[in-house]
Structure formats: structure tokens, C-alpha cells
Amino acid sequence: MSTPTDTAVGASVDATARARDLLGVSRLTNQALTTWLHGLPGVDQVGCEARAASLGTRSIKTTSKQWAIDTAISMIDLTTLEGADTPGRVRGLAAKALVPDPSDLSTPRPAAVCVYGDMVTTAKQALGPDSGVKVAAVATAFPSGRASMAVKLADTRDAVKAGADEIDMVIDRGAFLAGDYLTVFNQIAEVKKACGDARLKVIMETGELVTYDNVRRASWLSMLAGGDFIKTSTGKVQPAATLPVTLIMLEAVRDWRDLTGDQVGVKPAGGIKTSKDAIKFLVTVSEVAGDDWLDNRWFRFGASSLLNDLLLQRQRLTTGAYSGASYIADDSPSTAY
Amino acid sequence: MPKFEYAPAPESTSVVDLETSYGLFINGEFVDGHGESFKSISPSSEEVLAEVSEATDADVDAAVKAARTAYTRVWSRMSGADRGKYLYRIARILQERAREFAVLESLDNGKPIKESRDVDIPLAAAHFFYNAGWADKLEYASLGANPRPHGVVGQVIPWNFPLLMLSWKIAPALATGNTVVLKPAETTPLTALLFAEVCQQADLPPGVVNIVTGAGATGQAIVDHPGIDKLAFTGSTGVGKMIARSIAGTRKKATLELGGKAANIVFDDAPIDQAVEGIVNGIFFNQGHVCCAGSRLLVQESVADEVTRRLKRRIGTLRVGDPLDKNTDIGAINSRAQLDRIIALTEAGESEGAERWDNGCELPSSGFWFRPTVFTGVTQTHRIAQEEIFGPVLSVLTFRTPQEAVAKANNTPYGLSAGIWTEKGSRILWMADQLKAGVVWANTFNKFDPTSPFGGYKESGYGREGGRHGLEPYVRTGA
Amino acid sequence: MARLDVKKTYKLYIGGKFPRSESGRSYEVYAAAKGKAQKGTFLANAAQGSRKDARDAVVAARAALPGWAGATAYNRGQVLYRVAEVMESRRPQLVQEVRDAEGLTAAAANSVVSQAIDRWVWYAGWSDKFVQVLGGLNPVAGPYFNISAAEPTGVVAVLAPQESSLLGLVSVIAPVIVSGNTCVVVTSAERPLPAITLAECLATSDVPGGVVNIITGRAAEIAPWLASHRDVNAIDLSGAAGADGVDWGALEEASADNLKRVLRPAGTGTAAVEPDWTDTPDLSRLQAFLETKTVWHPKGR
């Protein structure tokens, strides 16, 4: 599913100039950003959650299910982000990405492996040059984002230099919650410049933003500052990727494209563990943003255990029988028996 | 071509065990009626589901007599606690047989299974649970001194929420100590007849609930019967007025839940995506066969184009089709007659100059169907802005100021419900004060609950159903 | 020689003004007959209200509705209490008129006037309480704030009792207006004079013009127009009892045209009976002219 065009768009666009243009101001100030973001329509929590719940009740055709499972697999950013990560573990993850199911080689590969910046070289080597599987690196003092801008930029440049195809940055939630939108904007815009051709995913850590109004504002701010993707979470904070939060973000990218003509991707990350959940997300993508987003260029799942459940369901559809963990080859199996 | 295809995910009909014909439920058993039998068909396929008896005057008389006997000999002498226990039993059985009721309701009525399964049947059970608890607590309900039942209550219910309307009627009537003769609508009698079986399973004393099927003549026989002490009717304003005339000068009481032409008012600061959902839910829930449907969208002129654009995009994703399919959003129109009325009114809308749009979806070849339809450029003087269409047809009007929104919203003889969409709290409260409607939904729409009183102002009827207020019409008070 | 007193002209009370009937008609009002006399003494020529007077009164009542319904409950309570104060200050006149109208002894008439005054006080106190007593928060099964509150129905037509010319009259007006309704009252045909004196009390006690409109005359002539009037929201038929030529069933039937809320007269079957107005009232008359409005709002962050 990966394509050669799968590089960052508008890397050369001056985000500040575009923002001035969109906001209709001569100088981009925090006041201007505040006025703009606070002018976005509000989100009613109950209504939003009811809509998400109703999307979760859709039932899809068996043939569509096959397609949905393969699509979901191809959208996964297979992730390991532990202090205990070793080259061995990362190589294991990469091997899993290359051959997700040794019992069925027609199984598609995930979109990327997602690692800390110092593991990019290892991951790159393990995946080889032609696998089509990207390497995504978290950067900017992930997961808290509490570091100086110089450190965040150095973190980013290191990862890009090591060959990362994609950078998953975190926003400064403290600045966002303090109303210092300009700081958040500038950080994203600068990291974006540091990314070069690497695509930038902007992690908003929605679990810390708490309200859907904040999620909507952070989504628009991230897109305005040049993010190629908006991403829910680091996976280190609960709640992570919920369906209503993803719904809000899908509405944001849909409306952003209506406004600017530019398409931005969405990545829910953390907490999506089952095929059933993944299909609910895909239904939501289809009904809210539209089928243009049903592609791993525009939609990703940040996940680790999700892959194995998708493989179980895939085996179930292929063989007609329910499968079990013993039939899912895994370098870091979750069950001990 | 969408990448995703939803499966036909039909709910199995095997849970429903239909008889080929049904009698009347009088005095605890099914008996043959003396009138012609009529067919109840599935509006989604036009297949005959069962033959049903039409109750004659004599049959209604037998039902009223059974109810009277049950009232004087059993029900009025029973403790409130025991009455409550019977209602709890009924509630539990409805929950146990929920899937069966949901499938049958969707078959007979045409509504999508996700609504009968998630709304109609659970709420019906909830109404019995709620009222069960009141049965031995009536003196705490602030109803006045010495609350006591009227006696025999005649109840006539519509076809849009057959079992739910039955529960709205029967649960408070029994909780307060009345006995009941109920007539379901002629196009949707089957869940009421299945409910009769529930009464049998619950060992409800014979005659406490009697169910007589039939059309207008049967309903009139109930209204006119001298043995009826109180009437409760949900249906059209026209029939409601006939009932009010019929009982004028008598001592029969009446509760009337009638038509509506609700305004759903969207301000420029509304939570727009939820407002779009609320508009869709407001008019397309249950095919728009809802007396409180948000059939007039009043949208602030400054955001009218934006809201309409989003609305149409959303309506484009609605799925019309097999009511038993779990993915269906909009089911079948309940009857040929109702479909004809919807067609006639929408044609009037076009000829009066409103701009018509529908989502162009495919419709099944048999059965009664109507695409979700939006009229823009509608003004208050258009028939489609004044008359209740009772179908999936939305009229879009605009306003400039809150005052104008209120004036337009209230500019109708109806007064059942209204919707307000704005993020400004004080405006919500001001609007809610001004709107002449019995139910005001702010930043939501079409929500129902057994604890929440429902009923209209003006020609939308009188009396309330649900909550403590819903007990009032079923008791006498004072010395 | 005694001074020649100045007699009052009894007129209608519409929109806060005291007009004559637009029809120009009046009728003779006599005191209740005493002893063996066929007829009491002549009291006054009362205005004989017409359907057009009723029509004008409905317009006045409709116009007064937003202001009165929108007034604070505290304000309405004070206004009603003020009526009691003003009546107290006019007690001798009211007592005399009730004596004349109903043929009571001075002591009995005094008692009736006292009760009528007290009835205003009783209802005045309800103005800021009935909404609390009759409504409240509904514990719905979901994340919603849900509240029910009583509101006035609107314009109410009232057929005032034929017998009880003051206490009965107050007993039907006060529960209608305390909640914010406005009304058009057709008085007792034969005992209309206390009603007009009450109107003078209302006019001098901060009751806004149009909130209470009083028409003297024959209910049989006026009531059908009120019953069929589509801008009247409710009708109180209490005064049908003993009203010459009035068929309350026919009035109720006419009221169905716009689904008016109807308060039937007391009694059983088709009979209409005037209740004993000295009985302690309850909330039922007040409740008869209320609508319950339920408001939902989601609870979210």
C-alpha cells in the first residue's frame, strides 16, 4: 500500500505565512490564534459519544471484513516504545512487520514500525531498503515533551538523519492548556522544518487535553502548523485512542480539506486491541471523513497487540475455524503458555 | 463505489412465532371477535403477517364489562404493593422476550431493528419498571388528597411506536389501580397481542388488561362506551378533536397526545456536527413517524448554507432498506395510505416553490418507501411548514435573530416539542422559556425517558405521560 | 334634608379600562328579593356585554399575557396580595354589594368578604411555590439534565359563578391569574355588581390592564363565542351551574375545536352544581390552567 509519493507534502510551505493568510492577519500572534481556535464550533460531548456509539454498531459484509482486516493490518504502525527496548526486540518487531503471519504469506505488511530515535538505525537495517515498511521515530522528548526546543529539534534531526521516514512528535500540552497556542504552533512548525522529507505526525495526547473542544482546537492548530498527520496519543496516558476522539479528529481533517484543499492523516494510537475495534474505526473513517482516508497514507493505527488479533481473525476467515494464540508467531508473545 | 460494504445483517425472524390469526384478548383469554377479520401486513414487503379480528360494539362492550368486573372485584381491592409486583413481572418478561418483541415490531411496523431493539422495547420495559414502583407510593406523588383510580380506562394508541405507546398507556393506568381496554392501531396490532401473552405469563388477573383490535369504528366504540371512565389517546389532532367532542358534556376524562410540527432551531454558534446529528435524528428517527419530530429546521441565516451542506452530506450516508437489517437507518413507511399522504404533501411543497432534494438512494421494489428528503427555501406559509407530514421530510427555514426564531417556532397551532442548538447557556434558557412546547430539547433531540413528562401545548393535546406528572390523569383526588 | 348621593355607573372592565358595552346595551340589576317580595329593589343598570366585548377582551388578555406570564413569581404574588389590601380598604362597599346581591345578613356578608380577601392572600402565597411543588428534576437514565416546570396555559375564559357573586368570583379568578394566565370573565348575570367593584380593586392594585377582563351580562349570549374562540387556550365552566340557557356540554364541544383545556362545572352526569365556595380550596383549580414544560440538556465537559 505504500507508494513512492508517500513523503511529506508541503515541506517547503511556510506554515506561518499560510496561517497568516488563513487567519487573515498581518502578524501571527497568540491572540490571533486564540480568536481563530476559539471560533471553531463547540463539541457536545454527549452527542459526539452517541454518534460514535452508533457507528460502532455497523455490521459489515464478510468480503468487506476480509478487506477491512487486511486494510487495518496495512495501517498499523507496529510499535515498541519501552525503556527496555533492545536491538533484539526491535529486530524481532521488524521481522514481524516483514512476515506478520508465517503461516500465510499473503498477509499484508503493516505500514511502519515505530520506535525511539536511537533504534531507527537498527530498525532500518532489519527492514532493509525495499520492504515498503516505513520507520517511524518518536521525537521531541517523547512522551512528555518537557525539554528545550533545541533538544527537541536535535532529537528530530537525529532520527531523520538515521533514516526515519516519519517523525511522531508530541505537542507541548502544558503550553496548549495554558493558552499559549503560538508556542505550540511554532514548535510544530520548526519540527516540521527539521523533518525535511519525513512526514510529521503530531501527537496531541488527547487524554491530557481532556475535552473534545480541546481536541478539536489542537487538531486545527496542528494542521495549521503543518502536521501531515494528527495523532491521538503517546500510548503512555489513559485514555488513549477512543472512538469519539478519533471522530472529532476525522471531522477536523475533513473540514480542513474543505477549507484548504489539503489532506491530513489521522492516527489513533493506544488502546485499540481487537479487530472489532479496528473495524469500528474504519467504519467511522468511511462515514465521517470519507473513503479517501481509507488508505495507510491517510490513516494509521498506533498499536502492538492489535496486529495479532487481526491475524487471528484473518486466519478465522481463511480457515473457517477459530484460531488461538499458539498459531500466531510472535517474537514477544503476550501469553506465557 | 464505497470501499466498504455493509452486510445485510438481518435479525432472524425465527424468534417470532406468529399465529395465522388472532382473536381479541378479553378477560384474560383470546376470544373470537364478531367483526370481519383484517390483515396485518409487513410494510417492507407487503406480505401478510397475520389475520386479526375487528372488534364490534358488542366485543368492546364485553371488554369493558370484563374490565369493570376486574376493577371492582380484584384490582381496586388489591394492595398497591401487589399491583406493583404484577407490573414488575411484566417488565421482566418484556426484557426476557425483548428480541422477539423487537423483531415483531420491525416486521409489523417497518421500523429499523436498531430502533425497535435499542429504543422501543427497552423503553417499554422501563416504563413498566418505573410505574411499578409508584403503585404503593401514590400518596407521596403530590397528586392531591386521597388519590384513587377512575375505574375503567379506554386507551387508543397509534402505529408509530406500537409497544412503547402501549406501555406509556397501560403502565401508569395499572399502577394507579385502573383497569384497561386498549386498542392498538389497525396496521400494527401484533406486539399488543403478543403483550396479551405476557399478561397471561405474568398471571395478571383476567380483565385487568383487555386488548381489542380494529380500526376507527372500534376506537369510537371505546370512546362512546358509557362504562369508560377515562380515555387516553395518542394520534392525530383531527381524531383527538373528535374524541374531545364525543366526551363533551360527560364526566369522562381524557388525555390527548396529538400532532406536532416541531421547530429544531440551530444558531450560528451551535456545536455543528452534533447539531447535524440532531437534525438527522430529529426528522429521520422512525422514518419521521414521530409526533414530536423536528420537521421544521429553523437555521440562522448566517450559517444556513453551511448547515445545509453538512446536512446533505450526512443524509447521503443514511441507509434505507430492510427494517430487520441491523445496518438500516431508515425503514419502511408504515402503510400505503401514509406513503400517499407523504407524496401528496411533498408534491405540494414543490408546487409551492420550495426546493426539493433527496439522497437518491436505491429503494426496495416491494413495500412502502420514501427517501430522506429535504426542502430548502421553505417559508412559514408553505403547507410543508404548517402541516404534519409524519414522514422523512425536512423543511428548512431561516431566521435572523432569537426573537424571530421564537416567533416562527411558535407560529403553529401545535406545541409538542422544540429543539435548540447553541453553545450559549443563557440563550438556551431564554429560548426554552419562550417556546410554547411541552418538551424542549436543547443540544439534543428525540430523547425519551419514563421519568420525563411528555405532552403538548395548544393543539398538540393535553395531559402528560411519563414521570410523576403521568400519574395525574389516572387518579381522582379530593374528598 | 339628606344629601343626594352620587350613584355609580357600573361598566365593563377591559384592558384596564372601564368601557360601556360596545353594543350600548345595559340591563337592570335588582337586589335579591326579601321576604315575600317578588323582586328586590333596583340597584343599577349594568352594562350588557356582547360577543364583541368578549372579542375585545380576548385581544386585551392576549396582549397582557407576555408581560404578566413573564413577571416574576414574587411580583405576581405581591400584586395578588395588594388586591387583598385594596379590598380590605373597600370592605364596607363590598359588604353592602354582597348583601344586596345575595340577600345576606350583614354578618354573613362580612364573612363572605373576609373569605374573599383571604382567598387572594392564600393564592398570592402560591405564586412562587406551585412551580416547585409541581415540578422538578427528572432522574432520566442518561447523561442529561432534565427538568419539568409548570407554565401558564395562556388566555383563559372564565364563567363566574351565578350565586356567589364575590367569593365565588375571586375563587375562580385568583387561581387562573396567579400562575401568569390572563382571563376574560363573564360574571353572574343577576349579581354582577360586586364584580365591577372587584374590577375597581384590581385596577387600583397594580394588576396590569388586560390581565383580568370582566364582562357583565348573560353567559348564554357570550360564552359560546369564548368557547369557540381560537385565541382562547382554556375555559372554566364553573359558572355554567344555574346560568340561564347555558349548556356546558355544548360549550365543551365547541372548545374542542382548538383543544381548549376545559374545567368542567362541579356535579355529576350532565348536571352542573355550584360548589360551596367557603370550602378550603386545593391546588386543583390552579393546576387546571397549567402546562408542564420539560427541558432536556446533555451533561458533558
Q: What is the fold's blueprint, element by element?
A:
The complex is a heterotrimer of chains A (337), B (479) and C (301).
Chain A: H1 15-23, H2 30-38, H3 45-55, H4 62-74, E1 76-79, H5 87-98, E2 112-116, H6 120-127, E3 134-139, H7 149-161, E4 166-170, H8 173-177, H9 181-195, E5 199-203, H10 206-209, H11 212-224, E6 229-231, H12 243-260, E7 265-267, H13 275-289, E8 301-303, H14 305-319
Parallel strand pairs in A: 1-2, 1-8, 2-3, 3-4, 4-5, 5-6, 6-7
Helix pairs in contact in A: 3-12, 4-13, 4-14, 5-6, 7-9, 11-12, 12-13
Chain B: E1 21-22, E2 24-26, E3 29-31, E4 37-41, E5 48-53, H1 57-75, H2 80-96, H3 98-109, H4 113-134, E6 148-149, E7 152-156, H5 162-175, E8 179-183, H6 190-201, E9 209-211, H7 216-224, E10 230-234, H8 237-246, E11 253-257, E12 263-266, H9 272-284, E13 296-300, H10 304-315, H11 336-351, E14 355-358, E15 373-376, H12 383-386, E16 393-399, H13 402-410, E17 417-421, H14 425-434, E18 439-442, E19 461-462, E20 475-476
Parallel strand pairs in B: 1-5, 7-8, 7-10, 8-9, 10-11, 12-13, 12-17, 13-16, 15-16, 17-18
Antiparallel strand pairs in B: 2-3, 4-5, 6-20, 11-19, 14-15
Helix pairs in contact in B: 1-7, 2-4, 3-4, 4-5, 9-10
Chain C: E1 26-30, E2 42-47, H1 51-70, H2 73-89, H3 91-102, H4 106-126, H5 130-134, E3 136-137, E4 144-152, E5 155-159, H6 167-177, E6 182-186, H7 193-203, E7 212-215, H8 219-228, E8 234-236, H9 248-255, E9 261-263, H10 284-287, E10 290-298
Parallel strand pairs in C: 5-6, 5-8, 6-7, 8-9
Antiparallel strand pairs in C: 1-2, 3-4, 4-10
Descriptive account of the structure:
Chain B: Keywords: Oxidoreductase. Chain B: Belongs to the aldehyde dehydrogenase family. Chain B: This is Aldehyde dehydrogenase (Acceptor). Chain B: InterPro entries: Ald_DH/histidinol_DH (IPR016161), Ald_DH_C (IPR016163), Ald_DH_CS_GLU (IPR029510), Ald_DH_N (IPR016162), Aldehyde_DH_dom (IPR015590). The complex is a heterotrimer of chains A (337), B (479) and C (301). Chain A is an alpha/beta fold and 337 residues long. Chain A has 14 helices and eight strands. The two termini of chain A are 35 Å apart. By secondary structure, chain B is α/β, with parallel strands linked by helices. Chain B folds into two domains: 265 residues, 3-Layer(aba) Sandwich (Aldehyde Dehydrogenase, Chain A, domain 1), CATH 3.40.605; 180 residues, 3-Layer(aba) Sandwich (Aldehyde Dehydrogenase, Chain A, domain 2), CATH 3.40.309. With 301 residues, chain C is an alpha/beta fold. Chain C has one domain: Aldehyde Dehydrogenase, Chain A, domain 1. Chain C contains ten helices and ten strands. In chain C, a hairpin with a 6-residue loop joins strand 3 and strand 4. Chains in contact: A-B, A-C, B-C. Chains B and C meet through helix 8, strand 18 and strand 19 of B and strand 4, helix 9 and strand 10 of C.
